[in-house]
Amino acid sequence: MSSSKARHPVPASLAELLWHPLIVVGITNPQTSLVLKGRLRTLREAGFRVIVVSSPGSLLLSTSASEGVESIAIPMHRGIAPLSDFVSLFRLWRLLGKLKPDLVEFSTPKAGLLGTVAAKLRGVPRRIYMLRGLRLETATGIKRRILLAGERIASACAHVVLCNSESLRNQASALGLAPASKLHLLGEGSSNGVDTERFSPGPSDVRKMLGIPFAAPVVGFVGRLTRDKGLPELVDAFDAILKVRPDAHLILVGWYDTSEDALSEQTRTRIESNAHIHLTGFVHRTAPYYRALDLMVLPTWREGFPNAVLEAAATGIPVVTTMSTGSRDSVVPEVTGLLIPPGYPEAICEAVLKLIGDPERRRRMGSAARAWVIEHYADERVLGLTAAYYKSLLKTSGLNSGPAT
User: Residue 133 sits in a domain of what CATH number?
Assistant: First the structure.
């Protein structure tokens, strides 16, 4: 007579402990993985199994390794490319069918479109379109209409459109991307917040390294060097600034992006031939560069919510940026920095000269900026809101437009 050990069901509480819901986070280009740092790790620490998907590249591998998450490379073309887009869509559809994720978050225009369509076709139960900005804002003609259609399709395929800032949510609503009930904002915005310990006031050897005199006024820019970031206007403005303050220096912390809004050869030549403009290329640790600045300028035409402004503010320096979508949310006007209209070198020049000439005002603004960021945009707060929201979606069945936030 044989005997067998009775099988007992795993207690529900233990099953929950052993279950790690799968979230797939998709972006188009691996350079966007720079803005996923902290976000991926927080989701993993909140109990998710996290897989990040993008076109292949070293930044994809290094980010996934540092965040402790998995990565899968699927080539995606950043521009309009119907044939390669169809191939990418099929690969995403096949991948999601294999992984069967509990939740997906796709962002950036191409991955946002292809990823949300593939997820809807696969019936992924919780689909997030993370709206980090609207490239269509600087497009015209047929290209703008195509980009607008893509944004509307991505939004229609998602259960929730998570907007990066209040002004971005308002713009998305005005463009009819989705019903207001589907457009959500967590806290005061930002997808990652800022590490207020790493980005904090302190000494820096960057001026010495670049050969800039200690007492010279130093203006900085941090980010991709492109037309949409306002680099042509900044270069024009800096020429005018030098006529008033010939001792001024400009540090460009970033790289020449090869996207559709890449800088012209003429603008690049002007940057590289000016002895008072210091081009760093890609910098892994930017905190010492912020500390070397007297103020930062972001003359952008469009944003979602600029991380660089938060980093500068946390470092205790004022920021001059534009009234464009997204960027206008990143400054408290006349308190933490100055807002100017986009596209006007004269406005950049005037604002910079005002702050260069008033050290006490810069000090007040810098102190106010750091306090404001600590209160509203510390990374533990912003990322905590994200993890809590995504966990709440796991408890929601029959998701339509997502629970209110």
Answer: 3.40.50.2000
Looking at the fold, whether 338 and 251 belong to one and the same domain comes out as yes
What single-letter DSSP state applies at residue 219?
A: E
* Bridge partner residues of 322 (DSSP): 340
pLDDT at position 401, please? 41
9: Cα within 13 Å, side-chain hemisphere: 5
Same domain, 185 and 216: no
* 3-state secondary structure at position 176: coil
Average pLDDT for runs of 10 along the chain of length 405: 42 56 96 90 96 96 95 91 93 98 96 97 97 94 95 97 97 96 96 95 97 97 96 98 98 92 95 97 95 98 96 98 97 98 98 97 98 96 96 76 39
Q: What is the CA radius of gyration of the chain?
A: 23
pLDDT of residue 399: 62
Same domain, yes or no: 165 and 220: no
Dihedrals phi, psi of 33, to nearest 5 degrees: -60, -20
Output phi, psi for 236, to 5 deg: -60, -45
pTM score: 0.89
Domain that holds residue 245: 206-377
Clarify whether residues 179 and 244 are in a common domain: no
> What residue has token string 């460009």?
252
Q: Quote the CA–CA distance of 116 and 93 in Å, as a whole number.
A: 10
Structural domains in the chain (count): 2
Residues 249/255/260/262 CA torsion (nearest 10 deg): 40
What amino acid occupies position 251? I
Query: What local confidence, expressed as pLDDT, does residue 397 receive?
Result: 59
In a 3-state reduction of DSSP, which class is residue 359? helix
Q: What is the DSSP string of 355-389?
A: HHT-HHHHHHHHHHHHHHHHHH-BHHHHHHHHHHH
Residues 215 and 357 in one domain: yes
Burial bucket for residue 211 (CB in 10 Å: 0-12, 13-18, 19+): exposed
Cα(302)–Cα(322) distance, rounded to whole angstroms?
9
Q: Are residues 169 and 227 in the same domain?
A: no
Question: Which pLDDT value is given to residue 6?
Answer: 40
Q: Could you tell me where the DSSP H helices lie in 108-179?
A: 109-121, 141-157, 166-174
**Angle formed by the axes of helices 265-273 and 231-244, nearest 10°:** 30
Sign, CA dihedral 187-188-192-198, equals negative
